[in-house]
Structure formats: C-alpha cells, structure tokens
Specification:
The protein is of the alpha/beta class. It has ten helices and seven strands. It has a single domain, classed as Glycerol-3-phosphate (1)-acyltransferase (3-Layer(aba) Sandwich). This is Phospholipid/glycerol acyltransferase domain-containing protein. InterPro entries: Plipid/glycerol_acylTrfase.
Length: 269
C-alpha cells in the first residue's frame, strides 16, 4: 500500500487507528438523533463492489454520518464512503472530524485532474464515492438568505463518475437534518469553535430528533444507454433528471409540504 492511498482513500483493507476514530466520532454525533427510520430500505445497499452514492436534500451535516452508519453495517468491508465536498470545507470543518482519507475536496467550478484520479482510485478498489446531488446545503442558491431547505437543481457530477467507471448509483433521500445545527460554520464565525461544541453538546444531550433515510433501488440505466444520446452533457443531464424525478417523488411521499424549489410542481422534469 502506498502512503498516499492510505492517507486519502479509505479503501486500504488494513486496519488503521483512524478507522476507530472515525467510527467513534460518528457514534457520538449520532447521539444527536433519537431515531433513524429507514423502513428496511438499507437492504438496497450492495454488499460489495464499487458504488456511487448520491443523496438529497442536503440541508445539514449529519447526512454523511448517517449514510456511512448503514454503509458500514451492510458493506462487506465495513467501510463508509469517500465524500466529495466543496474545497471550502477543508477550512470550515475541523480536521479531527474529517481526516484526509474520508473527504475529497473539490473546486466545483474548476476541478483539478487529480480529483478524477482520486475518485478513480476509490472506485477501482471497490470503494464508495459519495456526495450531495445539490452540491451544497444552500441548494436554492440563496446563500445570503440562509435557505437550507429549498431543493436546488441536481448537479451531474455523480452521474459522470458512475458512467466513466461503469458503476451503479445508490440514490438516498434524507429528511430532518435541518433540525440538527444545520449551519455550524455560521456559529463558528460568531462564537468560535467552542460555540459549535456547546451547541453540539446540547443536541447530543437532547437527542430528540428523527431522521428519515430512504435508500432507493440501485440506478443503472446510465450503464445500458448512450447511443441515443451521443452528446456527453445531454447524456449526463438526462440521467441526472431521471434520478431527480425518482428522488423528488420519494421526498413528496414522505413530506408533502417540503419546499421543492427547482423541482416544484409544474417545474423542471
């Protein structure tokens, strides 16, 4: 094993102390949740093989931790995902909570070739690449207004990763994350990291929130089509729209009053 793979990719089969640290921290953070209700859909998680996971809506920080909890339970290697996230998080999230192996930081406007090499290494080693379809908690684009609920347009990056490596996509709907310190970075700016810790302790002590998590059936239509959509961007956008349609349907079913934003009734499918 090369040092770089161990440091970054979360696919090294050898036990690492960092694995226990990750699991321990996740266990503590999940104490902020009273219950994670899945209705048995975790059976849709494949036990092995490369996998791309995309979730929506993204309106908190607990979603990756909750999803990893079930990935570790179902996957043969007992590992969670390698999370692709915006580069700003490298400064906003304390390193003790992330580690280089668990996150790939990306400039979404100008992604470097090294990002694609890192993603390829994870998937070629039967690992999991995961991210939010919206790309940000502020999916509607209303950063100034602090709108973390309204659903934004899905980005095609995860379909690109999956198509390039012939990997199925596991769509995941997570509802309720906005109730658990949805914007810790704003608390940090005003009160420092100790302010974030105080709020987290309050949440863990209360532990009265419910997360609804639905692992939808594997999506693999992008693996068997392509000739009818010769343009790459058209292909990626087509399958991103199909995934959005399936996931928004589940969001509507679970929470009829959820603000669908870009995908509101009569909107953009």
């Amino acid at each position: 094993m090369t040092g770089s793979r161990e440091r970054l990719l979360y696919v090294d089969p050898k036990y690492r102390v960092r694995d226990s640290i990750d699991r321990g921290l996740d266990f503590v953070f999940l104490r902020a949740v009273r219950e994670i209700e899945t209705s048995g859909t975790e059976a849709n998680i494949p036990q092995k093989g490369g996998l791309v996971v995309g979730f929506a809506p993204h309106n908190g920080w607990i979603e990756p931790i909750a999803i990893d909890h079930f990935l570790r339970k179902k996957r043969a290697d007992k590992r969670g995902g390698v999370w692709v996230t915006r580069k700003e998080n490298a400064q906003e999230i304390p390193a003790v909570l992330t580690g280089e192996r668990r996150f790939i930081y990306i400039d979404r406007d100008y992604p470097k070739p090294s990002i694609f090499r890192k993603v390829a290494s994870v998937l070629q080693n039967q690992g999991v690449i995961a991210s939010a379809f919206e790309g940000t908690r502020y999916g509607s684009g209303d950063r100034e207004g602090g709108d973390i609920l309204t659903l934004g347009k899905f980005k095609p990056g995860l379909v690109l990763f999956a198509r390039r490596h012939n990997i199925p996509i596991l769509p995941v709907v997570v509802l309720g994350a906005e109730r658990i310190i949805p914007s810790p970075e704003k608390i940090k700016v005003k009160y420092g990291i100790l302010g974030v810790v105080r709020e987290l302790i309050k949440e863990i002590t209360a532990g009265d929130d419910l997360l609804q998590v639905r692992f939808l059936p594997l999506y693999d239509e992008h693996l068997s089509s392509g000739d009818e959509l010769p343009d790459r961007d058209e292909f990626l956008n087509h399958h991103t729209r199909l995934l959005a349609e399936k996931m928004v349907g589940e969001i509507r079913r679970l929470r009829t009053d959820y603000p669908l934003g870009y995908y509101r009734e009569g909107g953009s499918f």
